[in-house]
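Duplicate of #3305? Posting structure anyway:
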């Protein structure tokens, strides 16, 4: 039997697709960053004003008023960050958009550092969890140091976690050192508690003993703390004196069990000091109560694919940066724990991906869909809280703006000085300098303030129901918004001409 062989021509041959590399995490992380940016621009930025701390930081670089008093605990990192915009415009909207763009880009960059040690699903899940937290959303566009400490901590730990096949790790050393320097520049204490576990990890962990990275971490910490340390000698009488004063302002550093304070603050309190409120909304803290279990589960789950050490490094570093705020500071603010949340999101994501997306091939689409629903529910709950926080922030801004406007109409216009209750933010909105005679921001005396009033318009703000100090007696009182006897501020206004007339009258013989 004769068999005819049919020769296949080239066009009819099966074409084998060339080998293509996986797309990688960058498109997914970029989409996550864009979503984070859009949520900030839609939910948080419109109509927002600067909070108390923000007015202090922004005024150092320009903005709407002379520099406010810079107290001992503060560091100037965030003032450096906002200076390109604050030096050019006093527009809060422009500043917010600038910071929202920067924070979204930094989120993508910090997560991208981890691409060599974490698969894309874990990276995206970790980023979505952290970016979806209401403190992250609210402070992403804020002139506050905490979100930058969080992103710097995430990047620094990612650089340390990366494998270094050739043993040199120059890129990892530079990246880790620069990230620690950023955190220390923003908050020196956060830089210390971040560098500590990372230095230990590269010193004692088998397979991660890298002297170059260790030296870079220490150098980054020293470089980031250098401006704060130098200012300690030029303004506060030395490093020890500044540390002592910073501890006093923070209520004294020592054993303080503040875990329950942080749980209560998650209901939407930007500052809980003293945190003597009840459990207004326990459901908002449910995820935080489950976080330790999910982190432990993530460390265990990551061992099988060989990422247990990475998850343990992220968890240990996250616990280190959380330690002072949970057990050494006697009050709570959700933004304090942002660095911890950023790092703990890595083992948490390992746990969630293991639970929902590591099933058999037949069930994997269903697991991925379930994981998406879990993250969507998390984001929905956080958006409800951040919406409440934004409303409270807008009400506070409106009140400060109204008081500032009333003072301007009463003759207290730049150049001017405001002292008393809430003087720091109100002075910023009025375009005045703020000077306090007592408290954390004490920077003048009653006698010096009276002398100042001879030359520039000066106002003393008195809280509702409080009595003015004796030296304010005889000054012209102005009722300030909201304008009722229960909650109205009183402003004791002294204009230069009036003050001069009274001084002359007092000197005349009777």
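Output from current build:
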């Amino acid at each position: 039997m004769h068999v005819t062989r049919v020769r296949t021509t080239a066009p009819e041959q099966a074409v084998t697709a060339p080998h293509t590399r996986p797309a990688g995490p960058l498109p997914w992380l970029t989409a996550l960053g864009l979503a984070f940016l859009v949520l900030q621009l839609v939910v948080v930025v419109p109509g927002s004003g600067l909070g108390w701390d923000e007015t202090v930081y922004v005024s150092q670089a320009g903005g709407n008023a002379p520099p406010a008093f810079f107290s001992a605990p503060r560091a100037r990192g965030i003032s450096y960050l906002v200076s390109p915009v604050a030096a050019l415009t006093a527009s809060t909207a422009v500043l917010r958009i600038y910071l929202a763009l920067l924070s979204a880009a930094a989120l993508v960059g910090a997560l991208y550092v981890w691409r060599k040690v974490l698969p894309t699903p874990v990276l995206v899940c970790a980023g979505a969890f952290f970016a979806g937290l209401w403190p992250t959303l609210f402070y992403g566009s804020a002139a506050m140091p905490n979100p930058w400490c969080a992103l710097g901590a995430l990047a620094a730990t990612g650089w340390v976690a990366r494998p270094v096949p050739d043993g040199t790790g120059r890129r990892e050393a530079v990246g880790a050192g620069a990230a620690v320097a950023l955190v220390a520049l923003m908050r020196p204490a956060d830089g210390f508690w971040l560098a500590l576990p990372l230095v230990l990890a590269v010193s004692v962990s088998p397979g991660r003993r890298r002297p170059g990275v260790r030296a870079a971490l220490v150098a980054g910490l020293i470089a980031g703390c250098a401006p704060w340390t130098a200012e300690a000698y030029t303004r506060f009488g030395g490093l020890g004196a500044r540390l002592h004063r910073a501890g006093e302002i923070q209520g004294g550093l020592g054993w303080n069990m503040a875990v329950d304070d942080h749980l209560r603050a998650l209901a939407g309190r930007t500052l809980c000091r003293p945190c003597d409120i009840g459990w207004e909304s326990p459901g908002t803290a449910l995820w935080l109560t489950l976080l330790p279990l999910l982190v432990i589960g993530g460390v265990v789950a990551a061992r099988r694919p060989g990422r247990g050490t990475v998850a343990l490094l992220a968890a240990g570093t996250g616990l280190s940066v959380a330690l002072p705020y949970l057990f050494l500071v006697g009050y709570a603010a959700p933004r304090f724990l942002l660095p911890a949340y950023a790092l703990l999101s890595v083992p948490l994501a390992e746990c969630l991906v293991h639970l929902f997306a590591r099933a058999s091939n037949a069930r994997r689409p269903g697991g991925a869909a379930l994981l998406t629903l879990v993250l969507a529910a998390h984001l929905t709950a956080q958006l409800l809280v951040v919406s409440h926080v934004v409303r409270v922030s807008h009400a506070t801004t409106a009140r400060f703006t109204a008081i500032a406007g009333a003072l301007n109409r009463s003759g207290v216009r730049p150049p001017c000085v405001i002292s008393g209750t809430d003087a720091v933010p109100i002075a910023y909105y009025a375009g005045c300098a703020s000077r306090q005679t007592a408290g954390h921001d004490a920077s003048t005396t009653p006698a010096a303030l009276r002398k100042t009033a001879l030359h520039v318009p000066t106002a003393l703000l008195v809280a509702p129901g409080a009595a003015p100090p004796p030296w304010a007696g005889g000054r012209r009182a102005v009722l300030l918004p909201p304008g009722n006897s229960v909650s109205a501020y009183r402003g004791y206004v002294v204009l230069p001409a009036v003050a001069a007339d009274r001084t002359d009258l007092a000197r005349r013989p009777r």
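Confirmed duplicate; merging threads. The two ends are 143 Å apart (CA to CA). The beta strands are 417-420, 433-434, 458-462, 476-479, 490-494.
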